[in-house]
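>> received
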Amino acid sequence: MTGDKNKDVAESSELLNRSSIDIEQKRNSHEIEQQSNFHEIELKKISLDGTEEKRDSHDTEGNRKSGVTEEKINHSNSHNIEETDYHEHEGKINSHEGDEPPEKGTITRSHNAPIIKKKRGGWKLAILLLANQGLATLAFFGVGVNLVLFLVRVLEQSNSVAANNVSKWTGTVYLFSLVGAFLSDSYWGRYLTCAVFQVFFVMGLGLMTLTSWIFLIHPSGCGNGEKLCNTPSKTGVGLFYLSIYLVAFGYGGHQPTIATFGADQFDEADPEQQKSRAIFFSYFYFALNVGCLFSNTILVYYEDQGYWNIGFVASLGSAVVALLSYLMGSSRYRYIKPCGNPLPRVAQVFVAAARKWHVVPADADDLYEMEGKESAIKGSRKILHSNEIEFLDKAATITDKDQNEINPWRLCTVTQVEEAKCVLKLLPIWLCTIIYSVIFTQMASLFVEQGDVMHAKIGNFHIPAASMSAFDICSVLIATGIYRQVLVPLAGRLSGNPKGLSELQRMGIGLIIGLLAMVAAGVTEIARRKYVEPGKRISSLSIFWQIPQYVCVGVSEVFMYVGQLEFFNGEAPDGIKSFGSSLCMASISLGNYVSSMLVAVVMGITARGSDPGWIPNNLNEGHMDRFYFLIAGLAVIDFAIYVCLAKRYKYINLEGPENEEESQENRDDEVLRSV
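>> returned
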């Protein structure tokens, strides 16, 4: 019995040894296979690097509706593995330490030990950007709100010339928003674009402060409406215009980008953050008006009293603080990579459609599109097919010529085609907002000139005409709160829309209220002229009669401009988000140019012979009320066209967010390294 037991034990031991040897051989074989796979990935990486640029612009080898080759799939998978491996070896992912649970909203990945991603974005960073917006706006309007009076009192320009120059300057400010949006979406990204344009903004304010102090404000305290300044030199005037256009360049390029960058701090894939993203635009406009409130009251008062340099220095200081506060959050912002130049992508769609002029567009299911979740536009989600502007579907229709070779100027993906469609669909709506911007721009020009010839004293205290815009700002702040806390829940219950009113409905309401502001301004002007005593420049009518027109403009802004920001940013595809935000600014730009053109045309028609025209130097001899009513009439026509377009508009249909292996944390770090 003992011998049998020893024999069994020996056999069991031998069996265990053989199993151990087999396991060891399999493990070694697995390690050799892993090393082989690793070398294969490295070889593919070399091939990938050589063709990266071509693949990003357009995948010319496959990913068609007819099928994707196995080689392409392996190629894409190896790229994802390399990206993840690269960032982990860079040490950009923090290892989990201790037993603390991951932060809410972070992503974990298993690789020998739990990995915790640093939390980026959210309301803390969004509030920092809101503060930046408020300070930058304070600096800008510390210059802009009283600029028309500076041109009249210091540079000795006439009322009509000064109003036109302010309109052109303001228009240029917001025209530069397109430049900032293009650089942001295409090359620099939002963070770098905001930083660079803020530097130009600070430079412009610094040059303007020095120019006014050295060349223009002489004697000290001049330009207050009573004490005349010395005739300005050509050098001083030239440097002043250079400085204010540097301010225009810096502030204009910064505005749409900071709005989009703030919205980027919330992840659209998270329903809660998606709600926060929508609310952010209301707070963004709220912050803008808080900055305006300080500049339009305190700074305007000092400037109106002839202390122009104090106002300019305060504006410069605010801009510097804004820039420094912006840079403070650099390591914690949530970054979105630029998606490349959109102009070639859009051009390819039109060229491809034109080359297939006689081709019948294919059915939606047969149009060319990338397989899987990856879009042909780098960093962008796919856009689902729509039935509008079907002519452009020819660009995504596969013909016999496309079977042999895929040429991006002959065949485009559905996402590319839909991106071009989105641009075309947005433009008519955008054009209808320009007349409203004509209404809005009157606050910085004719409203100020009107208030300057009204009774503006309470006892011995003189109210600066430009400070009346404080009523506009206060109405914006109050209306924003009422809208969010009262109107949205009420309209949501009545309409079933959780947003209360759609963006297009809000924009239409804003246009109507803006129209009423022009009517109120015209009625005030009629009353003002009735109370002008012969031989006197100032009417005895109180300047507080302007309150209704300022309040109407302020309330209309909450509906129109906040609605525009949400609408254009939401409807713009991922690759041109900043462009969407810039459309709101570009509307203000063209509104200023159209206002300037209207003034020139009206004065050219009405100022003939002995007739001084509607807007002469002496407003008591003119009929500025007729100009206000003309704008109101144009707004009625514009509203009718807008309603027709809004009824026919169909919203963009995006595919769900991509489930990427490369985390947002890694993309943020890569952007920081490139900066």
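>> Residues 1-7, 30-118, 657-675 have pLDDT under 50 and may be disordered.
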